[in-house]
């Protein structure tokens, strides 16, 4: 296999012989890598599928090409299943499902449909676009609000960076260099009060970034104290935590939050939340038909909050609290 698989294998997998399906994505990656080297399929696979080993070898040849062409390669079990199903779509259903079961990957009927990508051009109505730094778990307030930070090296941010913020960031770096942490902390407070923050990345690099609070456009998730409020927040965290997001900002709400569409690794976040039943279509503020369609799909499947016969709407819940009921 090419360098892409070798790199992925080195990061994700420990050398081992696959004997069960419990290893998931790492085991499948390992076996594809092994197939490129030995042309052998894993032991035990024949117990799960109906086709011959010659046919199995054909599958792994196709999968190796698909894995190499994926950018980025699958990292989650759901992503791996989708790639396997797409690559082997002309093969027998029993074989495809048997292969997935061998690796302990989810079967196709259990997956929630996700979009194939983000808009290739800026949609009408977008005021500006943000490319965030990786999202921290603490940045997720609830199921429809997340705080993002954008590096001030971004052309849009650098053009309007206040001089006093840049000066404070420079002085903070100097203070930390001489271990004057009291002064450094005081300077960072000035930076935070101005709507910025110094973000530490995994490589120990520090980046001065602008803070934006994002309200997901077109949906309303259960409040934290409502049924499914915790689950909605957890689902949003799964979608965005550790990811660099693309945010298309359309408006600002009365709380000063940017109202926008969020894309995470090519996935439209609002779509996933609606389809999994962790949000309502907020039709009072957004009339997009596709959002209503995704909510109706979740209702029909009775997933997420739709498992309840008559879940309380978050806007009604908020109104009741305001009126003391």
Give the structure's gist in a few sentences.
42% of the residues lie in helices and 16% in strands. By secondary structure, the protein is an alpha+beta fold. A hairpin with a 5-residue loop joins strand 4 and strand 5.
Please, what is the average pLDDT? 87
* Backbone shape: globular
Helix content: 40-55%
**In terms of structural class, how would the helical and strand content be classed?**
alpha+beta
Q: Which oligomeric state applies? A: single chain
Q: How do the helices and strands follow one another from N- to C-terminus?
A: HHHHHEEEHHHEEEHEEEHEHH
Put simply, the count of helices is 12
Kindly report how far apart the N and C termini lie.
Answer: 64 Å
The beta-strand count equals 10
Q: Main sheet?
A: 8 strands, mixed
Uncertain segments of ≥5 residues (pLDDT<50)? 1-22
The radius of gyration computed from the alpha-carbon positions, rounded to a whole number of angstroms, is 24 Å
Q: What is the percentage of strand-forming residues?
A: 15-25%
Can you give a write-up of this model?
The chain has 325 residues and is of the alpha+beta class. Helix content is 42%, strand content 16%. The chain is built from twelve helices and ten strands. Strands 1, 2, 3, 4, 5, 7, 8 and 9 form an eight-stranded mixed β-sheet that branches. Strands 6-10 form a two-stranded antiparallel ribbon. A hairpin with a 2-residue loop joins strand 8 (258-264) and strand 9. The longest helix has 17 residues, at 53-69. It starts with a helix and ends with a helix. Mean pLDDT is 87; it is low at 1-22.
């Amino acid at each position: 296999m090419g360098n892409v698989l070798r790199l992925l294998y080195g990061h994700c997998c420990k050398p081992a012989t696959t004997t069960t399906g419990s290893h998931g994505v790492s085991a499948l990656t390992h076996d594809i890598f092994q197939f490129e080297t030995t042309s052998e399929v894993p032991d035990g696979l024949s117990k799960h599928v109906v086709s011959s080993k010659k046919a199995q070898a054909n599958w792994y040849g196709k999968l190796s090409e698909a894995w190499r062409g994926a950018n980025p390669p699958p990292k989650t079990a759901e992503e791996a299943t989708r790639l396997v199903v797409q690559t082997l779509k002309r093969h027998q259903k029993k074989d495809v499902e048997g292969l997935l079961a061998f690796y302990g990957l989810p079967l196709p009927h259990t997956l929630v449909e996700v979009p194939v990508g983000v808009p290739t051009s800026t949609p009408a109505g977008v005021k500006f676009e943000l490319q965030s730094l990786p999202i921290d778990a603490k940045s997720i307030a609830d199921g429809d609000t997340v705080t993002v930070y954008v590096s001030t090296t971004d052309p849009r941010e650098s053009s309007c960076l206040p001089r006093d913020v840049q000066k404070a960031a420079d002085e903070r770096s100097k203070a930390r260099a001489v271990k004057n942490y009291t002064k450094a902390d005081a300077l960072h407070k000035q930076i935070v009060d101005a709507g910025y923050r110094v973000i530490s990345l995994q490589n120990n690099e520090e980046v001065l970034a602008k803070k934006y609070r994002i309200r997901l456009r077109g949906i309303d998730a259960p409040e934290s104290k409502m049924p499914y409020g915790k689950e909605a927040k957890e689902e949003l965290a799964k979608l965005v935590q550790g990811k660099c997001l693309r945010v298309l900002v359309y408006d600002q709400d009365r709380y000063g939050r940017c109202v926008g569409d969020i894309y995470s690794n090519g996935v439209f976040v609002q779509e996933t939340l609606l389809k999994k039943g962790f949000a309502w279509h907020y039709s009072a503020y957004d009339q997009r038909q596709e959002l209503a369609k995704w909510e109706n799909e979740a209702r029909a499947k009775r997933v997420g909050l739709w498992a309840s016969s008559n879940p309380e709407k978050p806007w009604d819940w908020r109104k009741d609290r305001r009126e003391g009921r």
